[in-house]
Amino acid sequence: MNKPEKYAVVARITGAHGIKGWVKVHSYTQPTENVFDYKPWQIELDGCKQAFEADSFRSQGKGIVAHLCGVDNRNQAEALSGLDVCVLREQFDVLEDDEHYWYELQGLKVYSLVEEVRVLLGEVSGFLETGANDVLMVKGCSHSIDQKERLIPYVDQFLLKVDTDEGEILVDWDPEF
Description:
Elongation Factor Tu (Ef-tu), domain 3; single chain; SH3 type barrels
């Protein structure tokens, strides 16, 4: 596998909030407020990562909003809309052997056993949070059985093995779905 990126995406800025530079934040952490434990945030602007620090944040409706140091008006906040918030991966806690951060699964090949034969379904292209459970988005790739996108629930019932060292996930999933 390639050398892993030293940053991981932990949130996305989804828009401006108000006129004083606050931004709406969609956090990928659990619980959502944990995104503020990571400092500094790195946001790519004009091809360069720039460091930002949230000096204040709060719940707002069903989401969270934050004020970033140096972002003091709506125009500056709008310029960050749609951008990912990254942090150094070395800040993450070490997980148990059977637990994985989403970034560790991104790009892994997904195989299913069909009549005892491994079949390549594609590779992990993203994740969905459905409330009930997380879902792997698996997109066809070169050498996969087709180019379909599959949504596979990330639950023990369908996950047989996750091997990040080998770069693959083995699932119990009918390729026809």
